[in-house]
Design goal:
Layout (H helix, E strand, L loop, with lengths): L1 E7 L5 E5 L2 E5 L7 E9 L4 E10 L25 H20 L8 E3 L9 E7 L2 E5 L5 E3 L8 H5 L1 H11 L1 E9 L4 E8 L5 H11 L4 E8 L6 E7 L2 E6 L2 E6 L8 H12 L5 E7 L5 H6 L3 E8 L2 H13 L5 E5 L2 H8 L6 E4 L8 H10 L3 E6 L2 H11 L3 E9 L9 E8 L1
Parallel strand pairs: 3-5, 6-21, 11-12, 16-17, 16-19, 17-18, 19-20
Antiparallel strand pairs: 1-2, 1-4, 2-3, 4-5, 7-8, 7-10, 8-9, 10-11, 12-13, 14-15, 20-22, 21-22
Helix pairs in contact: 1-10, 8-9
Length: 415
């Protein structure tokens, strides 16, 4: 069967129609004619794999990674980078229109940087003591390198292999700070891990730059720490703020784009009297805004992130910051009882709950900066917030080049 690809859709698939049926095909481009195989028929659509590209797009290039097409980490390595940005912008605008009835002709800007070697945190799957990732067919793909992972993390893959031989992990997560040149490791294991044995391994067989190794038990919400050897945190400097980052805390994986995004959305903004940073994590936005505001409140449900935010506020001598280990709902209910000039939102992929949106509409902060990593939930939330707010600016930030993931920053103003 030969299909002609109409467009790319969110999740990175190309959409095609044949005999009144919709087909989704990965690793293709709009305008291409593709011979497909392994068709899986669902109730309302079909999924197929490309077998041969009959007519190629002028934007098609050779992937740089030998594992592309098997490993599940990348989706767009076959597309010129400028065209990746164009396609993502189109997907974002279409999603906002279709789900949120938000019609925008063009974005206010696209924030991007190096399309390779950008990730400062990576979670490797381990199988038979080999390092790799989960493949597109849910299989294991052994790797020797990863071109979207920082060069520093690539450099210690041989060590991770040696570590796996000794401690039989099911997975290993690595965080690297380009500021301190330090690594943090976190892992879960199939075996019982003796603390003294791990301590001796760290002292004698581990690079000095690996400052902390933490054993955890898998948990759906948050990995439960069993014990740590060494220091389970490091530091990272960004835009004049020194952040402490612990092994169980969330931080943006693309530091260069995060820096540019903060600079972009804060440019030409006034000094705010009162700022609320909800889903604030370690204080990426909130601590930076403390230098541009009279009062900042930061909240997050993750205790590790909040501990880091508190530490970093003291480290940077920011005495105008209050930090709360609270759910978003509790934080909004309490903090919006008093007038706020700016509310910063950076929720998970699921977006905001209806209850959270209702509190925001009642509290009426003057401005909202909504940072989203999922266009569909963003579109839904913008539609609901549109009862009281109008969109001032929308920016797309390419935090995850070579993948279909889209980060968006939206500025909203009370009407």
């Amino acid at each position: 069967m030969i299909l002609e690809i109409e467009k790319l859709v969110h999740s990175g698939y190309g959409l095609a129609r044949y005999q009144n049926r919709v087909y989704f095909v990965p690793f293709v481009l709009p305008g291409e004619k593709v011979k497909v195989k392994d068709v899986i028929n669902k109730k309302d659509y079909s999924i197929a794999k490309p077998d041969e590209i009959i007519e190629k797009s002028p934007h098609r290039i050779e992937p740089v990674c030998e594992y592309f097409g098997r490993c599940g980490g990348c989706h767009f390595q076959h597309i010129e980078y400028d065209e990746q940005l164009n396609q993502k912008a189109s997907i974002l605008k279409e999603t906002l229109k279709k789900i949120g009835n938000v019609d925008i002709e063009s974005l206010n800007g696209v924030v991007s940087d190096d399309p390779y070697y950008y990730r400062n945190r990576v979670k490797f799957k381990v199988s038979n003591k080999e390092i790799g990732f989960v493949g597109i067919d849910e299989d294991f793909v052994k790797i020797e390198h990863c071109p979207i992972t920082s060069k520093a993390i690539n450099d210690i893959i041989p060590f991770l292999k040696e570590f796996s031989k000794h401690f039989n992990p099911s997975w290993i997560s690595v965080f690297y700070s380009d500021t301190t040149k330090e690594y943090l490791l976190k892992f879960a294991s199939y075996d019982y891990i003796d603390k003294d044995r791990l301590k001796k391994f760290k002292e004698n067989l581990t690079p000095k730059s690996v400052v902390g190794i933490t054993l955890v038990k898998d948990d759906k919400k948050e990995d439960r720490v069993i014990f740590s050897i060494g220091t389970p945190f490091t530091f990272l400097e960004l835009l004049g703020i020194e952040y402490r980052i612990s092994i169980n805390s969330f931080f943006q994986v693309n530091i260069k784009v995060a820096k540019k995004l903060i600079e972009t959305i804060t440019k030409d903004e006034p000094i705010f009297d009162r700022v609320l940073d909800d889903y604030g994590g370690v204080g990426l936005f909130g601590l930076y805004m403390a230098k541009r505001s009279k009062e900042v409140d930061i909240a997050d449900i993750n205790k590790s992130s909040i501990n880091d935010a508190e530490y970093s506020a003291k480290l940077n001598k920011l005495d105008n910051v209050s930090i709360y280990n609270q759910s978003s709902y509790v934080f909004l209910k309490k903090s919006l009882s008093k007038h706020a000039n700016l509310l910063i939102l950076d929720p998970p992929r699921t977006g905001l709950t209806r209850e959270e949106i209702e509190l925001i509409l009642l509290g009426k902060p003057d401005y909202i900066w909504y940072i989203s990593c999922e266009p569909s939930s963003l579109a839904r939330d913008l539609k609901l917030l549109g009862k009281r707010y109008k969109i001032k600016e929308i920016y797309m930030a390419d935090m995850f080049p070579q993948t279909y993931h889209i980060e968006t920053a939206v500025k909203l103003e009370l009407v």
